[in-house]
Amino acid sequence: MPYLVAADLHDLPAGTRFRNELQAGGILQIPGAHNGMAALQARRAGFHAAYLSGAAMSASMGLPDLGVITLDEVCFFVRQVARASGLPVLVDGDTGYGEALNVMHMVRSFEEAGAAAVHIEDQLLPKKCGHLNDKRLADAHDMAAKVAAAVKARRHLFVIARTDSVASEGMDAAVARARLYVEAGADAIFPEALTTADMFVEFAQRMPGVRLLANMTEFGRTPFFTAAEFEAMGYAMVIWPVSSLRMANRAQEDLYAAIRRDGGTHGVVGRMQTRGELYATIGLADYEALDASIVQTVLPV
Fold it and tell me: Is 102 among the catalytic positions?
């Protein structure tokens, strides 16, 4: 049954539900869901949280991940993913859309849109994907001020501080930054673009008692690790940020090539989600039943 018409609407704020999932035991697996349909599919697959990647949102709009999409555009994605699935959603907040006051505005906007958690990063604009070269870093104390502002503004949002500093400043500097961000109130730390298992283990060992987020993106600097391997390294959460978009994009690319080549979809129809499968996923019958019940309840006596 779709969350919108389900009987199990949540009484708890999204951020509280995110914290509860973290406390449930085991590493929290958070797949990227770049739109409402992907979020529904993630929920049906059994996941308990979803991730909204800035790179996936930008790419789905035909734009590069350079911090060019706006807060309002991101809130549109947050609303559809949270509302469609009912999952607690971790949102990529990029650099916070400005300085401390902008970060506070972002936090309130994300909460109102239905977000459960956010991560903000210590890059300067124009920011880059964390696995690319020549990222420019913000002053560590300026970033800590953003973290403090986010914590001050939130009602329930879980705040994660991401540091992109390992590649350019080294492990010691990254750990020092992370400790500063924790002192500023961050609920967790996201060390981006670590390149070996030893680096993941070292970072975790030097941040005892702090929840850590690992990023398992494809075609980046991080080798492939499973959720269980990240958990063994000391990580509480793992995201697969752009995987759903990559799969969808390749399938669409194949579709358009087939239509252009064959003059129709007959050669690829067997790979499509059927009409029945689509309606089952979005809960069409439940919506129709809900509509019928509403009509019945408003009939005059």
Answer: no
